């Protein structure tokens, strides 16, 4: 619960410029007849610096003319961002609609494409036009017949690309597919001159000079062998230093199979030490030589035989020759086992160039002996399965044969359920490969089953599932196989037969879910009661290169929903292995050469179409020529020729054009590998006229979804976390490359904000800093901006944004300050300014302004809280109507007010320890409380709650100047902080938490020394609960009295139920009578000189459940205003109207979610909630604020002030976080949005001027005030001195000596002689004057006397933190046996001065004797320089 302490004051509230919505949208109902400009004017100057905290991500000043619009997260919304950064909701699609592309026509309309049937209520088909002038949507003819994925606009034509065939209703064959053009002026669709493309179009980009149009996607083009490629194309590496040389294999999807687990023999092996074992060649980690090479006996022929434990689909063998002392294998053949077939092997005719023409061999194959060729791949016939092989070697180089590398190859990875079988044959060194991995949940056991080869066994996993188990509760297993190359694959699941194991009745059905990297999941249900081993196809489609270390393909096996139907029966799932089969290792299509089949060459993912002349690079067919891109072309441009060298199934997602001929460049991003002449580039490549430049670091290790260029840098976004060579880590889906310099690398974009998932789109905008910046749209929080000038993210430009953005439409002139940009996606909430958890407020005149705290909250805060039976319910996190802690209300179950109980002392389980609150210890990201502190010239704010920001957890000190948050050194808070205060540089921190030392509910910390302060006795909770503190407050006018309230049983050894007072001077706890058994959630002080304390909550008084009580400091007693049954439920907030104890306001909850708001007029309670708080509202704080302009007079609230109500409010169907109430009318004042998109909650306002009082609001001119002050001050001093003297003599003239405490020393009483007060007038005058005019006490004497008297009147025992009563001390005596003037004496007992001139002292305090001429009363001084009279008998002698 947040602190709700009232000091007759309030803080100014600053506001954000907030989300602006267009006036054609529906307006919310008005509350009061006002606009934002006519809201009540709070006098911020009167209360100093202020701040507001709570659970919200955005804050706005309420304006009924600009209502909050609810976004639909089930539809896609189009939002415009103005040059000032203000966002406007333009309209949304039908439910389920998706916007994939946006483009702006220069000076004209905006076009939106995707998958939808309506926009802003207008019927459309997958594409729509928005007119900013009329703010209306309209269709483009009949629309397009399927998804639109890409748009490009100029002043006259809109080019659309996607997954459609053509316009709705177009004649069959009139469109080639996937592209179409819309005439803006003619309002009609037409086919493009090249007819169409044969696959989805993902991006359309014009060249920088407008001469070409570049299309990218997942399509192919065909060019005849006689194709003319204008110019010569070469491939260069932009940074050889950052790209290591990797020898290309014949097929990049080939994956080594470990031979370590096979049974193998070799003969005859060398007798040379370190060369005789064939396993040396399985994974050579070092150079060709000892322990890295297998040699045969010199001059001898021989063989290597390997027998596998199961049949495997094998694609080839990789052999690396040895060069040790000139030796090497020359001639060999390979025989398959068990069929003893000598295999025909396919290999590259030029061993040093895997892209060379293919050749075959069979009985006499030759292995190259060229040091520049580390290994050769020899492919087996397609779909070959074997259980082993024999490698016969019958020719050698030099003295004898041998091998440096020997690996069997599959045409895709194997991944076993038993993890030990997944060991890679070579994780480092030559031809190293990644390991496939497997993980499990639930109970799996390893067992051996019969293999398909007689006499063999194979290890598998069994998962036991009791009958009736739900699929979600059953064990599961996830394979993460290595995918070595982008391409088309088929995946198979192997299931051992049940007949050999005799367990068919116990077998069940399993669900197998295949999730490709970045693709949609597919599910296959497999009945595992197959009699013999079976391989089942579970996926067929494209995969991108990935491994377990960088994410990617996963295959999860679990129980099918109908798998266990019979209770009482135990079923078994069986997991053996999966394997991948690539479609790109047939020896004719490889990653290392262009795709040439028969008489055509195949391009992938890129097509250039000339709009003007011969296009951007001057090598295209003239624009007027007829083309058909769906058929065979004969004119490949240099860019088209680049597409010949992209991997199978390449998909191009983004194309960026920079400059014009002869300096034109094109950057291409997507999911592909470019490979030519032994050089490759992953997912990014650059083309300039006749030159291909691979990206630095070999590209990016993951799909690139978007590219943008700015000032010599290419910015890339996608699903990558590192570069392809692994040298640059931590990219987090965003990186940039300075392409204008050589030798550069990709660099991370600092710390990428959490936008959830991968980045969807990039664009350019102008934020007003005279430079364009990169805008990033994605999922989660949706929007972020990067400032290239400082290479850092702009944390404020995006404002507050929650949603999953799918498209960005930049201006045709990004550097134009007056340009609007557009976003679209599933938006939950948006605001122009962000304020995570709060901000500091300031004002210029009476205009509030807010400065968000200069730090961000972590997405998931540390949420550990002290184990406790205290239950504080949690507010709803969904963006619909919030619930104010129904759980807390239900668990409280208080007895009816006014109903007596059987016993005052109840069991702990019967004691109420929680109140309704919109906050919970289970909720993170909440700043619930704060307090200002000034250290010299530096201003700070102590902030606390339940949050994490960088390394700060739950409490921190915020530097207003530097805008930085730092932790409190040495202080660890585990739980939730709900209240705080800073008094004399000592921070008081209260809540439901445990400190590192084990203290509960209350911690103190010395800010001046940066040290934990544990001098106060700790609080203890009720039995079975933790001590919880909801309020920490200083009694106004009494600087040494700190009141702590909440739910606790004692303070130190002092019984102190739920409310206690700490005396900072006496260093002791004092109870308020017998306390308030239960929970106190809020307090307020009222009456002249803070005579009364109001406590709100749910507790017992006189054995009766009560929700509000009043403590009278004069007679030390609790009273209940009215009758306990007058208030209908637990009170959560209370405030008195200044010093007027006849005007008390209380808010609370009836039942689970019905609020109440009551007013006490000094005689009776009355509800004043008519037309105010509605069901679901919850009040966290009540406090009065001063106004600059009076409101209309009424009998409830004076005209110069209003009551501010904060929390989670609904007023007249309008959500608000703060509202003002003038006694008759409600004024919603602040609205906020939570980080989940729902209504936010304001927990507390706090301010820097703690001495402000509404009682002094009637102003006079400065001159008169000064003159009156001088006169009054002089008169008061004179009168007080005279009155003090007279009173002292009148009361003490005949009074006997002041005895020590009777309970401790009755025997001393009999020995005391009757002694009197000092008789010398000069002594009395001196003592009184010394106290009253003392430099440290002359302005506070009246308050101090009242504080001492009231403090002493609190009826309760006292707990000392220091020396106990009765402890002796040393006193200096003169030669005559009396005390020595100027000597030091120690107080044996505490003494509370009751009259002017007397000094209050604490037991054990050392005092200097100033005057001891009177035997009964001494004039003494303490170590703080205060002087006064005290009984001589109280001093140690």
Mean pLDDT: 78
* Strand count: 96
User: Low-confidence stretches at least 5 residues in length (pLDDT < 50)?
Assistant: 1-36, 225-248, 584-599, 860-909, 1258-1262, 1292-1297, 1302-1325, 1330-1377
Query: So what's the overall shape?
Result: elongated
Query: Helix proportion of residues, in percent?
Result: under 10%
Percent strand: 35-45%
Specify the structural class: mainly beta
Number of H- or I-type helical stretches? 6
Radius of gyration: 42 Å
Biggest sheet features: 6 strands, antiparallel
Report, as a whole number of angstroms, the end-to-end distance. 52 Å
List keywords for this structure.
five-stranded antiparallel beta sheet; single chain; mainly beta; 5% helix; six-stranded antiparallel beta sheet; 1437 residues; disordered N terminus
